[in-house]
Every structure is written in C-alpha cells, then in structure tokens.
C-alpha cells in the first residue's frame, strides 16, 4: 500500500522537490525481471531506456508492471521523435516520459501534445493498464492524468541550450532532463565525449537556474554514484547514478577481483 502511494505521489514529489532529490535506476536490458531486481535497492524510481536500450513496447509494459509490484514509479525514455510511443507508455502506466533531443519550442509542443489530454495537448484516450495500475475510474484518470504523469524534455544540443527558456515555457512540459554526454559532444563539435567537466558543470548550473525561474524541475544523467551526489548538490531534482550494464559489470568485476585476491594471498 505504501508502495502505491510512492508511485502515485511521484509527480507531486518531483514537482515540489519535497523529500530530497530522487535517485533513479536506469535500465536498458529489456527484461522486466531486471526491474524486479534493481527495484529492491533503495532507488526512488526506475527509468527504462528505449532510446539506446533494447526494450520494446511489450517488455516495457511488463517492466512498468514489475515497478508497480515493487512500489517504484517507472519512467520511460523514448527514441528520438517517437511521440506516439510516449502516449502508449503512459497508457501502460508509466509515471512519466523522457523525450531525447528536444531542440525547439516546436519539438516541445509536439511532445506535450502526445502526452497531455486537452486543454494542454491532444493525447488520445486508451489508458487501460494505467487505470488498472492506479485503481481509478476512467473519469478520475482523465481528470488527474495531466497532473499525475510528467513530460520531460531532454536538453542535449546547442540548439536546445539556446532554446531552453522557450522549451521551459511550453505549458505541457513539466521539466527537463539534461544529457551531459550528447551535450559534451555537441559543445566540442564532435571532438570529445566528456560529460563530467567544469565546462559542462557550468551549463548544468545554468539549466538548474533556468528551471527554478520557470517553476519546473531538472533531471540529469550521472555516470556513477559519486557524480550523482555532486549533481544532487548542484540542485537537480532527479539524478541517475549510472546504467544497469555498468552496475552489473562493476559488480561482476569486483567479485572476480576479490576472488583472485584471496586466491593469491
Ligand atoms: C546523454 O548524456 O546524452 C544522455 O542522453 C543520457 O544518457
Ligand atoms: Mg543523449
């Protein structure tokens, strides 16, 4: 029961910043059981990465179900421009959708149109699984969905940086998600993948301040736990502490290293 409160209180928590910054898992391996396992850790939320990860709609819908079983809200990142998938994920009970490469107010408006019911957008009706998950009537779901789910626009190009205020001004956009990897490639004109540098930190601080000015929340990808801690200190409301593949391999590498050390000692 308390798990279900956590899921259904997610949009309020991320909007208000209450309860401290959110630390989310980031999963690209397309097996709902991965959500089951990682959700046992003290993550506040789970992201399914459908841009660079391997999820399809059916596995993502089941991943959202495993999040609900564990009492954790699930947010999904869609492939670039796939706004039809965004509304399908909300229909399946996702608590939010992250759209990569939102570079203009027009991109942001198209994303908001797919994820918000009128008057904010023109999301089409059919949230069968979402209603089952939430135990709501259809009428209650319609009345609360725009508020209870979040549309998050990724800022990760020069054009997006220049348009950040216009993107944040779009009514159906609830917050932004900064992609420091793509941003570092864009700002170096393709010369460097360097997401954790003072130059990128300057941009991140600027974007947190723009979010505060617009009354919207700020999310970001952190390459590991320490980086996630720094990003929370910078004022981000929602951070990633590394991806599933990396956490899996680091765990395996450290177990092998521990075994070899004892064997040699
Ligand atoms: C980026 O850093 O570019 C992202 O999209 C986060 O994975
Ligand atoms: Mg990116």
What is the fold's blueprint, element by element?
Blueprint: H1 2-8, H2 10-16, E1 22-27, H3 32-38, E2 45-49, H4 57-70, E3 74-77, H5 83-91, E4 96-99, H6 105-115, H7 128-134, H8 138-148, E5 150-155, H9 158-162, H10 164-169, E6 175-178, H11 180-187, H12 198-214, E7 217-220, H13 225-234, E8 238-240, H14 244-264
Parallel strand pairs: 1-2, 1-8, 2-3, 3-4, 4-5, 5-6, 6-7, 7-8
The structure holds 3-hydroxypyruvic acid and magnesium ion (MG).
The site of magnesium ion has 5 residues, from α11.
Description:
There is one protein chain. This protein has helices at 2-8, 10-16, 32-38, 57-70, 83-91, 105-115, 128-134, 138-148, 158-162, 164-169, 180-187, 198-214, 225-234, 244-264, and strands at 22-27, 45-49, 74-77, 96-99, 150-155, 175-178, 217-220, 238-240. The chain has a single domain (3-264), classed as Phosphoenolpyruvate-binding domains (TIM Barrel, Alpha-Beta Barrel), CATH 3.20.20. Helix 4 links the parallel strand 2 (45-49) and strand 3 (74-77). Helix 3 runs parallel beside helix 4 (57-70). The protein is built from 14 helices and eight strands. The protein has an eight-stranded parallel β-barrel, surrounded by eight helices. It is globular. Helices cover 53% and strands 14% of the residues. The model has no long low-confidence stretch (mean pLDDT 96). The chain has 265 residues and is of the alpha/beta class. The site of magnesium ion has 5 residues, from helix 11.
């Amino acid at each position: 029961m308390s798990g279900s409160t956590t899921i259904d209180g997610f949009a309020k928590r991320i909007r208000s910043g209450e309860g401290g910054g959110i630390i989310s898992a980031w999963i690209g391996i397309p097996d709902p059981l991965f959500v089951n396992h990682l959700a046992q850790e003290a993550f506040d939320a789970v992201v399914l990465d459908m841009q660079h990860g391997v999820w399809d709609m059916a596995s993502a819908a089941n991943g959202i179900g495993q999040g609900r079983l564990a009492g954790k809200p699930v947010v999904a990142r869609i492939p670039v421009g796939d706004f039809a998938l965004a509304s399908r994920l909300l229909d399946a009970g996702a608590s939010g959708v992250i759209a990569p490469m939102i570079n203009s107010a027009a991109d942001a408006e198209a994303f908001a149109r797919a994820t918000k019911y009128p008057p904010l957008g023109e999301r089409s009706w059919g949230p069968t699984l979402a209603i089952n998950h939430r135990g709501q009537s259809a009428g209650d779901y319609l009345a609360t969905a725009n508020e209870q789910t979040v549309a998050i626009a990724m800022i990760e190009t020069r054009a997006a940086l220049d348009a950040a205020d216009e993107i944040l001004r779009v009514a159906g956009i609830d917050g932004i998600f900064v992609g420091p990897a793509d941003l570092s490639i864009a700002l170096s004109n393709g010369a460097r993948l360097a997401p954790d540098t003072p130059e990128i930190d300057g941009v991140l601080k600027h974007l947190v301040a723009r979010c505060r000015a617009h009354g919207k929340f700020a999310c970001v990808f952190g390459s590991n736990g320490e980086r996630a801690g720094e990003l929370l200190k910078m004022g981000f409301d929602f951070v990633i502490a590394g991806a599933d593949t990396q956490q899996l391999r680091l765990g395996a590498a450290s177990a092998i290293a521990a075994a070899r050390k004892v064997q040699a000692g």
